[in-house]
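Appendix B, Record 12. Input sequence as logged:
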Amino acid sequence: MTLSGAVLFAVLSLASPAAPGAADPMLASRKAFLAARMAVADGRYQEALSLYRQVLTVLPNDAIVHLEYAQLLRDLNVGEEATRQARDAVRLDPKLAEARRLLGTLELASAEKDPTRLPAAIVELSAAHRLAPADVGTSVALARALLAAERSAEAAAILDELTELSGQPAIQRLTAEAKAKSGQYHEAEQIYQSLWEADPADREIAAALIDLYEDEDKLDDALGVLEKLAERDPDNAAISERIVLDLARAGRFPEAEERARQLVAKRPENRAGQRLLATVLFERDNPAEGEKILRALLEADPDDPMTRRALASELVRERRFDEAKAMYEDLGKRAGDDPHKADARRAAQVELGFIAYLERDYAGARKILTPLSIEDGQVQDRAARILLAADRDGDDLTDGRDRAKAFAAAKPSDPEWEAQNAEFRYQLGETADATAVLDRLGSSGQLDKMLAAADSYARLKKYDAAVRISRQAAAKYPESSEALFRLGSSLERAGDSAAGEKVFLQLLAMRPNDAATLNYLGYMWADQGVQLQRAREMLEKAVAREPRNAAYLDSLGWAYFRLGELPQAEKKLREAYRREPADPTIEEHIGDLEARQGNVEGAIRHWEKALELKHEEPDRVREKLRRAGAPVSQR
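Logged structural output:
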């Protein structure tokens, strides 16, 4: 450690004579300070602790003594006392960079168990970085703290300053992680690729590269890395399972099924492999065999929570809610009061709340999810999102506002909750304050905050504001598919479909297999009655990737309808309706199909239901009812 002016003065003062005949406590404390340092160097830590305490009784306001004492306590894993001593050092000398860094790293370590301490870690490490911008340890610690706070772009900017050390593998890994999480995929990919080429045996880097490819929807590239790993380690079942998953994600279900069957044949005892095969079979429209596999696994081991969750999840997707509820209730009972099974018990309850939401039992969803949404001061994201969706769909704006406020207070680092609180406030008439919040988030320059604001504006149907923020986000983060998708959809909903089309085509140039983009643009064209053949191709591709997605099935059915291919249209629209019977757009399309088939009464019934379900364009549906001769009361 570099001697500060205060310590140097103390050391030099050892030569100063004491007053004749008087004991000099300052002299004794200075000797004790030097002795403490020597004891640390010799590994005599308990003696050093005693000596530092002795010095502090005489020099309680010496920042350096507090700092060195804190460093020793940290090294001895006495974390809380080390933090207190580091705080004293910072209080006594706010410009002492070493103290700021130490306090920041201690707060960062504590934040692993207590996330509420993360903001304090960032404050201290940011201060240390300003005081000592060339200190590598401070820069790396600050970057880690910013990553933990999901401020990835700032972390990447900090690491970019370390140009002279950018060749160090540890810093390269951290930089790649920061860039990947901040949407700078191309640079992250280059770093990971160079690291993997330098050490093909590094599985951690290979895993990070696979994750990146999956996030970019470059599943063929991800599979290429996985196949090379499988060649190196052919008996590693986890690699084989990941290959099956990525084949399924790519919509290559026949290959996924074949690989899953090979995996099960090679290792019949591999329950994870059998669950994976069952999932692929459900996607391949063979739910009977998939269910048979899962029930056989449960019969062999009734206490297997993963299989029970897998079957319950599939039953939910098939809208067999009563059977799914029984599964989740049984999961909770089997978990009992065992603290080791608390996560499983909680997860089962959350899914019961989700089923209540799907059944439009919003009061039931609230009753189940309210005690689960914030636990031990931490927001449980899935439960919180379902609750706010229930408030939104159930028009309980006051409850939504209050809940979002509580979530924002418990997790201030997540802008999702602040944006949704502003959204509910806007609907309750607090338009000026809510707009100020959303605009602040939108102009922050941080991707997660900008996207949260754009989403809330879109739900409020303030599409011009959503376009403005999404455009800024796409300009700042040009590789972000999320920003581009929001920009394209907001432009289309704002009435500028030509501009939206350009954005979606740009996005497809980046991610040609992106199912959400293929669906949006394909449906947009089909609804406009343009580019119908191309729209059908896009929508068939989207459905091939997600065969059970009701929205995609509806879009494809609508394209067939527009093309006049009514048998195919009916098949897809009826399947979409079976999977999502409470969607107003699907109801409208089924009504249009009924009308085309000459069943006017059936058409009227579906159009009325579309209005009841709060169709986004009610006037269009009312016009169809008027033309069909429905009574005025039904319009």
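DSSP finds 36 helices and two strands in the chain.
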